[in-house]
Every structure is written in structure tokens, then in C-alpha cells.
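Technical note accompanying the year-one report. For the benefit of new consortium partners, we illustrate the data format agreed upon in the data management plan: each record pairs a sequence with a C-alpha cell string. No post-processing was applied to the example shown here.
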Amino acid sequence: MILAGDVGGTKVHLALYDFTDGKLKYTRDERFAAKEFGGLEEIVKQFLGAEKVTAACFGVPGPVRAGRLRLTNLPWTLDSQELATNLGIQHVFLINDLEANGYGIAELSADQIYTLSEGDASQTGNRALIAAGTGLGEGFLAWNGRTHVPYPSEGGHVDYAPRNENEIDLLRFLKQKYNGRISFERVVSGMGLTNIYEFLRDVRGVDEPAWLAEKIAAAPDVNAVITEMGLAAKSELCEKTLDMFVSAYGAEAGNLSLKVLSVGGLYVGGGIAPRLLEKLKDGTFMKAFTDKGRLSQLLINMPVRIILESRAALMGAAAYAEARAAELSGVSPRAASVKF
């Protein structure tokens, strides 16, 4: 049995996997509110109970150095050796959350992916991966001539680049709100959706009717209300928020794809994209994605795919744990599960 974890800024998602005929077999999973626990070790012990696992891998937000990192959005420091010792698991690995997503792509079936743009599917080469959720994750999958190798990135923290007068004023609004530099994560993420809503309401003067203000004030998840009302066309303010958000998302996805030269395609992961799938289909995302001047045709030719499977990062973490543990121990559960 292999333990996989997706550690986010607000939740920790854990799952158990084994293998059947060389493929990942899901056993069970559970989500935990991160702020209710003192650390990852406490959550894992509660999840596992008396169950034993041979290896574990956790996808984590932030750069991992020598098996150790300080989380970006949580006051936790994680160390793979300490976790292995304290949890009694022989092999424990920490990898960047987008790296885990990258390994998960190879485990997905066709029905777990939605193709937003076919592009030129005959092209072979690097792939780009972008994922907006609590934060903005970015990564890439380098083509080595045989396979795609996932690599992490902290590209979501680059400087926000406004493209028009509306976005220039949004930048001014955010610089005042945060008292300093603004990264793309402040615009393309869960907090970004809220930021855009406040900008349109407070700076642009788009009407927030009383019923909507009450609904927002009472909601445990403001973004769920914005998304629901915007997709249902029940609020001009929410519709414009989604327009501005999805356009910025597409623009940064195009920026990443140019830097990675991802002729093998762009993958859009994270929790926000599946919830906004109908909005992503209306052309707003693709228009911004391909609007790259003299290099627009390069972007038009890139396939764009939305990851629909919420456990993609967990699947990638499980696959990574099995492969690395097999390298170290010489025993591969995946290979052993194949029947000849």
C-alpha cells in the first residue's frame, strides 16, 4: 500500500493506492482542513490509523531542498527523514505539488481530461502545466526523447503583467491593498477571484445588489458564490469577475507556454478550472492564451487540455513514491502486479 498526499494552503488531501495489472488502484481518500492541525504528521496518523504503508509521497507547495521545505501558505516545516522516522514508513518523499500533478498526467485516462483546443496534436516536445487553486502553481514536463519528465517551478510568484487599462488599474488597486509588489498569484488564484470582484465593485463601480452582498457576507466560500452567480448569469458583477479572471488565467498560461516552448501541449490543473469549465469553453481563455503577437501561431498550434480529475496530484505522488522506492529497494509493486 502506498500513501499519497496533496498538501495545499487550505486542505490536506490523502489517499491510499496499490496496483492492479500495472495500474494505480485507488483504495480510499480523505480531506483535512489544514488549519485544524498542528502539522502533517498529525493528519497522517489520523488518516492511517492501524494501516501500514511501504512508501509515501507528498506533493507540497513550495521549493523542496534536500527533502525539506517551509510551506508557502502554512506555518509548517516538513522534513522527509523526520516524517519517515516518526510515521514508521520506510520511504517518504516530498516533491513540489505541480511536480506531483505532472507525474499524475501519465496516469490519467481519456475521460479525466477535457480538450479545450486540439492544436496540432502531432507535435512532440515539452509540456506546460498551470494550476490555479488556493495559490497559482506552475510547472513543466521536459521531453527527453522518450518520456516527459516533470519539473517544479515557482512561476506563479512572478510579477503580475497587466495588458490593458482595466488590468493596469487592477494592479494599482492591488498594490495599495497589499502595500507592495504584486505577483500573478494575487490575480490568478482563489484570492485573485475575490480581488477582481472587489476591484470591479469598489473601483469600477459595478453594482453589487443587496441580495448579492448578503449572499457574499453569509457564504463560507465567497468564490463559490461568485462562480455560481457568474456562470448562471444572475449578476453582472460576477460575470465580469469571471471574464477578467479567465482572461488573466489564459494570458499567464500563454506566458508559461512561451517560456517552456510547450509544443507538446498545455495542461490546466488545480481546483478552479473544472468548476469554471463552461466559462473556459466560451473562448475568453483561448483568446488571451493565443494573443502573443508575432508568436500567436505557435500558441494556436499548442493543444490545451483541462485536467478534470481532482485526484491527479495524488495519483502522481503515488506513482512517484512507487518508482523511487523501487529504485531504492529493488522491489516494484507496479511491476509485480502485472499478470503475464
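Partners are asked to follow this layout when depositing records. The longest helix spans residues 236-260.
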